[in-house]
Amino acid sequence: QVQLVESGGGLVQAGGSLRLSCAASGIDFSIKNRGWYRQAPGEQRELVAEVSSGGGVYYRGSVKGRFTISRDNTKNTVSLEMNNLKPEDTAVYYCNVLPIPVQWGQGTQVTVSS
User: Using an 8 Å Cβ cutoff, are 89 and 32 in contact?
Assistant: First the structure.
């Protein structure tokens, strides 16, 4: 059974930083493209960052230069370092594989106050 567990969210002031982590079980992350998504209230879920099985990365334009995605194949995890956070980054953040997601986890709430 596939399980994704996100952690590391919280409440920070604008300009602050957070590091999100995602631990996977029941799936081998090392052979998958992995991504971080977010969903703000009333909005659709959107892809924020992706790291491919080969190590290539993609960032949504609004987070480029502020967020860094990384992976640890030995621990079957993917992380998201978020710096210079803005109120518009407020959302529930989820990890998953691409291009076809598996069962979504609970996500982790990130709230950025102005």
Answer: no
